[in-house]
Structure formats: structure tokens, C-alpha cells
């Protein structure tokens, strides 16, 4: 199973030269807790989460209208490829200790975003279907 199923929704992105206040507004408007920070060619260069904003801007009492996304983001984000398997993706979550991974295409451009929650929902649905099949096949 590839990650293509997670590439159907528009990914919330932002440029590193934008301000953190703009990022926070975008997160609110799009109802997301993270933005993929991209270059002009849509290659990911970072991730900016609501936690990054709190710990690197608000807690430091910095002015969010003066701080650039590049100053608050987590650089060099862990990524997975569209053709990555679910096993590879789970390993990447564990290895990098993150809850969200940008998905990139063959050219390295953002194609989607997968969260640990997405994978857990998918796996629980698979387990539920498997359990139902087992129940249906029980004999008298």
C-alpha cells in the first residue's frame, strides 16, 4: 500500500520568508496544526507547528509579526515518498520522533502530508475489517 491515498487533499504550505503571524493566521483559517515550509519549487525545507510557534516565539516573548517562519521552523524535515510503504512510514515516524511527515513526489516536491493519526485510523479500520471477517467465518 503506497501513500498516494494521503495525497488527495491540499497541503497547507508556507514560505520561509513569511512572518510567523501570517503562519498562525493560516493555521487558524485552514484548521491545521502544522504547515510544510517550502521553497518556490515546492520542495520542503522545514515544518512549522503550533508547538514551534509557542516554544520559539510566544514563550520567548518575540513579536510574531517580526519573526520569519525560517527562524521558528524545524529545519530539514523528515520526509517520505509517495511510493513509500506503510512500514517505511511507521519507521520514519518512530526514527524521527514526529507526528507529521510531508510526502514528496519523484521530483522532491510536496505531494501530500501524512500524520500519525491518519495511519492509526487506517490501521484500526483494517483491524476492524479483519476482526469482522474472522467473526463471520466462525463455525457452529
From TrEMBL:
It comes from the Bacteria. Keywords: CBS domain. SUPFAM superfamilies: CBS-domain pair (SSF54631). The keyword Cytoplasm does not apply. Residues 7-64, 73-129 form the CBS domain. CDD domains: CBS_pair_bact_arch (cd17775). InterPro entries: CBS_dom, CBS_dom_sf, Diverse_CBS-Domain. Signal peptide: none annotated. The keyword DNA-binding does not apply. This is CBS domain-containing protein. It comes from Pyxidicoccus parkwayensis.
Amino acid at each position: 500500500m503506497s501513500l498516494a491515498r494521503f495525497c488527495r487533499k491540499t497541503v497547507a504550505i508556507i514560505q520561509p520568508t513569511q512572518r510567523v503571524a501570517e503562519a498562525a493566521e493560516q493555521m487558524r483559517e485552514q484548521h491545521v496544526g502544522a504547515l510544510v515550509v517550502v521553497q518556490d519549487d515546492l520542495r520542503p525545507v522545514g515544518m512549522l507547528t503550533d508547538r514551534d510557534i509557542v516554544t520559539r516565539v510566544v514563550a520567548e516573548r518575540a513579536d510574531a509579526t517580526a519573526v520569519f517562519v525560517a527562524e521558528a521552523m524545524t529545519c530539514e524535515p523528515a520526509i517520505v515518498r509517495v511510493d513509500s510503504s506503510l512500514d517505511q512510514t511507521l519507521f520514519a515516524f518512530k526514527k524521527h520522533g514526529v507526528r507529521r511527515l510531508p510526502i514528496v513526489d519523484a521530483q522532491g516536491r510536496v505531494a501530500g502530508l501524512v500524520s500519525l493519526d491518519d495511519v492509526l485510523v487506517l490501521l484500526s479500520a483494517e483491524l476492524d475489517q479483519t476482526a469482522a471477517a474472522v467473526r463471520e467465518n466462525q463455525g457452529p
